[in-house]
Amino acid sequence: MILVSLGTQDFPFNRLLEKMDELIEKKVIQEEVIAQTGYSSYVPRHFKYTKFTTFDEFEDLLDQCRILITHGGTGTIVGGLRKKKRIIAVPRLKKYAEHVDDHQTEIINLFSDKNFIIGLEDVSGLEQALRAIETFEPIDYVSGNQKIVSLIDNFLGRTVRN
User: Fold this and answer.
1) pTM of the full predicted structure?
2) Domain carrying residue 71
3) Of 60, 71, 106, 147, whose CB count within 10 A is highest?
4) Helix, coil or strand: residue 33
5) φ and ψ at 140, to 5 degrees?
6) pLDDT value for 159
7) Mean pLDDT of the region 1-7
8) Can you give the residue ranges of the Glycosyl transferase family 28 C-terminal domain (predicted)?
């Protein structure tokens, strides 16, 4: 199953939903798609959707999905990485009134440059990204908290041994 998550900010992201419908129509996508559409006004024709979910409902969907396609929200990206999901991220852009600025592009570039996700600049690259995600091997994500705990453990281990 492919999960599409557009977050909960009060902005539409119709372009991504429209592209998903297009790719399903073209048979590029042939598996189940479920989307959390937020404040988007576009009504998907070829896949299930809900505007919002509870935290637990979203976690269940995230557990079930094979691929996560998301906006550039840090919380959704990190949540998917923690569950070792293959992620394609597409930024909301200011020029389409999808956000107040283009910070999601910067967020996506940071994660993509480190090989955690496949990051796109626009929905036009989604078909190619879906092909690439099949063989994409993301590196394991370690949060800052996990790194700190590991550093402390290593330090204490060395201190106790000395």
Assistant:
1) 0.88
2) 2-161
3) 71
4) strand
5) -65, 135
6) 47
7) 97
8) 1-132
Helix axes 74-82, 55-64, angle to 10 degrees: 50
- The answer to whether residue 155 scores a pLDDT higher than 80 is no
Neighbouring-strand partners of residue 33: 2
Element containing residue 144 per DSSP (H, E): helix 144-161
**CA nearest neighbour of 45 among 22, 68, 11, 13:** 22
List, in sequence order, every residue forming a beta bridge with 34; answer none if it has no partner: 3, 48
What are the beta bridge partners of residue 86?
67
CATH number at residue 107: 3.40.50.2000
Listed in order, strand segments (DSSP E) in 22-135 are 33-36, 48-50, 67-70, 86-89, 118-119
Q: What is the mean pLDDT of residues 93-116?
A: 93
For 99-124, letters b (16+ CB in 10 Å) and e give beeeebbebbeebbeeebbbbbeebe
